[in-house]
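Email to the structure team, subject: DNA polymerase III subunit gamma/tau model.

Hi all, the expression group asked for a predicted structure before they design truncation constructs. Nothing fancy, just the tokens so they can compare against earlier work. One-line instruction: predict DNA polymerase III subunit gamma/tau, return tokens.
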Amino acid sequence: MPNVKTKQAFQPWHLKYRPQSINDLTGQDSVQKVLTRLIAEDSVPQALLLSGPKGTGKTSTARIIAMSLNCEKGVTTTPCGECKNCQAIQNGNSLDVVELDAASHNGVDDIRKLVADASYAPFSARTRVFIIDEAHQLSNSAQNAFLKTLEEPNNHTKFLLATTEPHKMLETVRSRCLPLRFRPISQSEVAKRLEEIAKNEGFSIDDSCLQAIARSSKGGMRDSIQLLFEVFCHKEGDEPLKVDKVYEVTKALNPTQVEFLLSAVAKGDSYNLVRCCQKIEESALDINKVFDSLLTAWTDVMAVVLGANPKQIAKTSILGTENLEALSQKLDLTTLTVGLEKLDQAERRIATSSNSSRWLLATLLSLVSAGGE
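Reply from the structure team: attached below.
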């Protein structure tokens, strides 16, 4: 019989390109340095609190720590990823690495079960590791039930708590953990990683497209990789991916639309604001993203008015240098300050509005009345 190649199962890119060692972490130099020293000295504390924005590598890092402590080649900052322990942790079926999603398992009984499990010695690994995701969603009673175990765990047990909102956790819990703070990943670092992924997947992509994807992710690597894949799915032929495809896929304002709207505000051009808002509604753009783009661009213009270098701001802004300079000449600081507050308030209100498009128009018209020429 002829050899029949088995088609490899598709793996989502955000999992395929998940970091596999401490050195693979993008944009987290401080976390890297601390963990490298702790693991190299085999002195990882009994409890770590990994906090920071979504998609910055907290849960991935927790799994890397678990592999680093349990790799069959020994405690190492560069786990092999191939031994039985590493493979089990990567596949999520290790008996010694337990993950608890506190978003759905946040009660006292859930923690009591975890505490009971923590009393057992490792089955096949060196160290038992308990990863609690969204740890801030544990109830106060559950957190209190956890205190004694966090303070005096077994020698063979580590607790890794990951959260986007550490301030919601009890101070008594936080004080028993070594904090590792993850920062939003810079736009340039995200874009560089996306370029590496695109090259590995064998397709070309414009730098402006990379920057647009990186900008939209707000410092989160996971979201940017997911968006890169989504944009790739809309690719046509062998031509490099263009930036217009990003705005088409995300239903967000493109740079031309942002500049047009802000220029209309600066000129007091209510007629064109109304026309543009009608087109936005007809195009079914995501109003949340529309407000986000306007608010971010408005802030960029304000930075230039306050003395920032427009060329420097343009490196991460949706607006180019010339547009930033032109708008900074037309909008004074008072108008920008009032407008910033209005945009921010409207952005929060549209979450409960039945007609967010009207909020957009009303807000832009109020900006005209607040200033402009």
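The chain has three domains: 13-181, 187-250, 255-370. The mean pLDDT is 90. Ping us if the truncation boundaries need rechecking.
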